[in-house]
């Protein structure tokens, strides 16, 4: 962890505090380019936007996918106040970002929450209908 990493993580934590002060969950993220320039930053706005996907990590991944070429995206670093959730981690992978540095781990975050405050698991069933489901996908990834 470099001094710059710590400085950018502190900014992510500031963004998290700002999100909380604005009535949202306390999470913040920023995206730093290869030259150390802050390219974009955001706080969580899932409550004020009435949008369960308005996580700052997802916002940064979407911004990068829209605004950066693949080579530049691969040389960026996302700094975030907490380890990205599964939804955000998937978006980060698809956006092609080069690195993620986070402050709190998911385990540390969960230890700060009251017991029973998490989201309930949704049962999932599958795979099913292989012969039918493969038709629209087959050949797409070639």
UniProtKB/TrEMBL annotation:
Stretches assigned to the CMP/dCMP-type deaminase domain: 3-120
Protein name: Nucleoside deaminase
């Amino acid at each position: 962890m470099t001094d710059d990493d710590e400085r950018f993580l502190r900014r992510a934590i500031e963004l998290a505090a700002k999100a909380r002060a604005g009535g949202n969950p306390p999470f913040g993220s920023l995206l730093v380019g290869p030259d150390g320039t802050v390219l974009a930053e955001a706080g969580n706005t899932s409550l004020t936007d009435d949008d369960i996907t308005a996580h700052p990590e997802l916002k940064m991944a979407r911004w990068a996918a829209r605004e950066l070429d693949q080579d530049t995206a691969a040389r960026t670093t996302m700094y975030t106040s907490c380890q990205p959730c599964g939804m955000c981690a998937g978006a980060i992978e698809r956006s092609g970002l080069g690195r993620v540095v986070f402050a709190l781990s998911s385990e540390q975050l969960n230890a700060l929450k009251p017991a029973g405050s998490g989201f309930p698991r949704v049962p999932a069933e599958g795979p099913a209908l292989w012969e039918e489901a493969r038709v629209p996908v087959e050949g797409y990834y070639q």
